[in-house]
Amino acid sequence: MRSKRTELFVGGFIVLAVLGFTYLAVQVSGLAFSGKKDSYQVVARFDDIAGLSARAKVTIAGVAVGSVESISLDKELYMGLVTMNIDADVNNIPVDSSIAILTSGLLGEKYLGITIGAEDEVLVNESEIFDTQSALVLETLISQFLFNSDDSEE
Amino acid sequence: MDTYITVQNLSFARGDRIIYDNISLSVPRGKITAVMGPSGTGKTTLLRLIAAQLAPDEGAVMVNGEDIHALSRSGLYKARKKMGMLFQSGALFTDMSAAENVAFPMEEHTDLNSSQIHQIVLEKLHSVGLRGAANLMPSELSGGMARRVALARAIALDPELVMYDEPFTGQDPISKGVLVKLIRQLNDDAKVTSVLVSHDVEEALSIADHVCILAGGSVIAEGSVEEIRASEEPQVKQFLNGDPDGPVPFHYPEAAVDRGVVI
Amino acid sequence: MKALGSIGAWFYDWLEAVGRAGIFIVQSLFRLPVRYKEAFSLLINQLYSVGVLSLVIVVVSGTFIGMVMALQGYSILVKFGSEDAVGQLLALSLLRELAPVVTALLFAGRAGSSLTAEIGLMKATEQLSSFEMMGVDPLRRVIAPRFIAGVICLPLLSVIFAATGILGGLVVSVGWLGVHEGAFWSLMQQSVYFDTDIVNGFIKALCFSIAVTWIAVYQGYECVPTAEGIGKATTRTVVVGSLSILALDFILTAAMFGDF
């Protein structure tokens, strides 16, 4: 029947669009539908967060274990205050671990890398990582290099 | 005379072009009225004014005692259920079969169930001799058949008034004969009031009871067929006989363009 | 002074047309009564002729545009050693700009013109008058289902365009040019945000769909009911529709992504 066939095609069209939308959401934007994973919040203060943005990855040994929740300015210390969510199952990060802002590739995105410390005490919700290493800013790097070579000549 | 439609002092203009200048005419109930006139006199416009698809600049059209242009939109739609119109092109809905076309007004306006509607559809198609074409699409019908299906659709709701817009134009002699017979038969059987707009003199006069001739924006003759045939009015005689020259000149008058009135 | 007068007259006409088009669409959508069962089946039929029939052109163009973008992007990015970012480039440009705009332009040409021609033809063959004579409002019966179907279809087509574009780009960059697949997806997922990029692209497509479909049905309904008139109206739909899409795109882009 004419109308049945039409309905079938329209149904197929709508299903296709919904699939496309889901595909875009999940595969392209990486949106997780499983709801918010259980996580705990950790903060860190950096001298310079240069280019780090919300939602950036937090990694240990290159494996993503969480993401940056928000970035703001600590008005008293004039430092960048980064709040991040760490997956709840990664609950054994020592408190003396250090955290650094890293870059993937030459032009890639900035992300956070945690280097594991030695203490037995571990990070819990709302604790802070004190040992921070700021982003490498190219200009700073170059000027450091220039000054250093000046020093060696003297 | 029992009149169904009365047109009173009607004036209508399209932009600068005056179509009707203060015309009055009447359509008797239960009879066939032929409205004739040369091409371009706005005969179709008259039908649209009667159906209130167009509004007059001045004057009124009374249909069955009601001023059709004073009705509200819902009142007008109610009034139109009692009217059927056969359009010049048939105007069948191209995405529906012949039967669906005829069923459409009933589906819209009645509470009949689908088997009752189907029964009436077959009856109506039978009355125009096209019962066998029920499942054809409009594109598969010939011009004459399309017009007959359109006629079946126009009478689907058993209207009191049926308007025919140039029903004979572009039809072969056999189709013309069939249509003449159908229009006459419909009028005799169901006592509907018919208004027929045409410039086919012979066909129109052969079935009409009452004739009205329009030219140059006014009514030049109105009366029974005999009265019209006996008319001594030169313009009427020229139109009926089809003389090439007469009051309507063979040569298009050069001044007419300036006057803005086209005859 | 005379030029000023003619601009004034033109503006007056334009304003009048806009007003007429506004009243026209409001009457189509909100004039009662509606018979929902019938309205639904009319809508399904229109979704078929507006949406399903536009699907092939959208899928084919989406795939090719994705493939071309991947080739072009790769040839530039490879100079900086960042060919992994081709996925990011592909996804952002498709989602934010190309999918809504190109789909809308295709839609104006494919579905918009056929809507105008169909309605114009119904007017020329007196089908619209015929509805009116039967006490059925042609705005409700003919215009409303076509308008609603058009507004629904374009955003869906735009989503399909983006998805096929990204798949086309994936095939070229990963399958052919040898970009690492993991890097392709992870860089894309890091830079594409659901709420800004995907949702904004969808909103853009929705705005375009309202504009294009509105223009198409209005041009059809208001056309001069002759062969020439229908042809002119169809051309106007494509021209006015496309220009409106591009102008709207600028405004929407400035509003959505302008505050960098």
UniProtKB/TrEMBL annotation, chain A:
Superkingdom:
Bacteria
Where the record annotates domain Mce/MlaD, the positions are: 39-115
Return the protein name: Outer membrane lipid asymmetry maintenance protein MlaD
Organism, by scientific name, is: Marinomonas sargassi
Which PANTHER family does this chain map to?
Answer: INTERMEMBRANE PHOSPHOLIPID TRANSPORT SYSTEM BINDING PROTEIN MLAD, INTERMEMBRANE PHOSPHOLIPID TRANSPORT SYSTEM BINDING PROTEIN MLAD-RELATED
Q: Name one Pfam family in it.
A: MlaD
Automatic annotation (TrEMBL), chain B:
Q: Which species expresses this protein natively?
A: Marinomonas sargassi
- GO molecular function terms attached to this record: ATP binding
The keyword Transcription regulation is annotated on this UniProt entry: no
* Name under which the protein is recorded: ATP-binding cassette domain-containing protein
Q: What range(s) does the ABC transporter domain occupy?
A: 5-241
A family per Pfam: ABC_tran
User: In which domain of life is the source organism classified?
Assistant: Bacteria
The answer to whether the entry has keyword ATP-binding is yes
Q: Which InterPro entries match?
A: AAA+_ATPase, ABC_transporter-like_ATP-bd, ABC_transporter-like_CS, P-loop_NTPase
Q: Which UniProt keywords apply?
A: ATP-binding, Nucleotide-binding, Transport
TrEMBL record, chain C:
Q: Where are the transmembrane segments?
A: 12-30, 50-71, 147-178, 198-217, 238-257
> In its keyword annotation, does this UniProt entry include Cell inner membrane?
yes
Top-level taxonomic group: Bacteria
| Membrane-protein topology | Multi-pass membrane protein
- Alphabetical keyword list: Cell inner membrane, Cell membrane, Membrane, Transmembrane, Transmembrane helix, Transport
So what does this one do? Part of the ABC transporter complex MlaFEDB, which is involved in a phospholipid transport pathway that maintains lipid asymmetry in the outer membrane by retrograde trafficking of phospholipids from the outer membrane to the inner membrane. Probably responsible for the translocation of the substrate across the membrane.
PANTHER family the record matches:
ABC TRANSPORTER PERMEASE PROTEIN-RELATED (PTHR30188), PROTEIN TRIGALACTOSYLDIACYLGLYCEROL 1, CHLOROPLASTIC (PTHR30188:SF4)
Q: Record's family? A: Belongs to the MlaE permease family.
Assembly: The complex is composed of two ATP-binding proteins (MlaF), two transmembrane proteins (MlaE), two cytoplasmic solute-binding proteins (MlaB) and six periplasmic solute-binding proteins (MlaD).
List the protein's name. Answer: Intermembrane phospholipid transport system permease protein MlaE
Q: From which organism does this entry originate?
A: Marinomonas sargassi
